[in-house]
Fold this sequence. Notes:
alpha+beta; 9 helices; 8 strands; 44% helix; 14% strand; disordered N terminus; binds zinc ion
Amino acid sequence: MSAVAERTTTYADRRKRAAELAERYDFAREPLALYGALAGSQERALERARADRPSVDELAAYVVRAALPEVVGAVMNAGTETLREAVLLRFHEGDLERMVTSWLRGETQKGTDVFLARAATSPVLEALPEIARALPIAGEERFCPQCGGSPQVSVFVDSGEALVTGQRRLVCARCANEWVYPRMTCVACGETDSGKLVVLADPDQLPHLRIDACERCKRYIVSVDARLESHAVPIVDEIVAIPLDIVAAERGFTKVTPNLMGF
Ligand SMILES: [Zn+2]
Ligand SMILES: [Zn+2]
């Protein structure tokens, strides 16, 4: 199992970064504004979970009671009309605990269910690693060694030493844990043949971002080069990769884990 790297960002860092990037990248302004509003509600959910310390058995009920209403509030403030309508409809349909449980099990769900379950549950998992560790895990290095979730984004970090290649880390889409992962290895199927690994980039517009895709399984992940952008907050910078996501989709690649905004 991979080493667990120390997590380095807080929700406050993420909110600040979303505001910075929205100034710089006009095309991503709307999803970043929503992300910033959600991060505010998630920060409060994280703090509440640290104080309340729910058990793993009451996790889904706790998420629905303590985190979901604020997430819905953030959407009402900053979401598009389409998202606001979809979320309100879903919220009033009920059976919300099952929506959360189903997400934790990795079952196939509708987009709105994934969005709500993820936005409300992930800060609770982030607050309480012991609960994240109690979830069933796959044990393969491409899954989070803490909670078994899939990676959202890959990060290249400076090794701090000349002549030593920087480390690659993956950031969990569920609990925000980071772990070390080999470079030049597909995060979805483990392919290492460089002839099958494809890099898509736009160095003029997005110099610190790229896509690492795989011809074998047709999956990809966005990678953030933190050596080129020292203030990057990978989980937020990932949202800005929209132009690269479009190129990847045109070439038949699918993101290993769509981000919270659904891209
Ligand atoms: Zn995780
Ligand atoms: Zn692959």
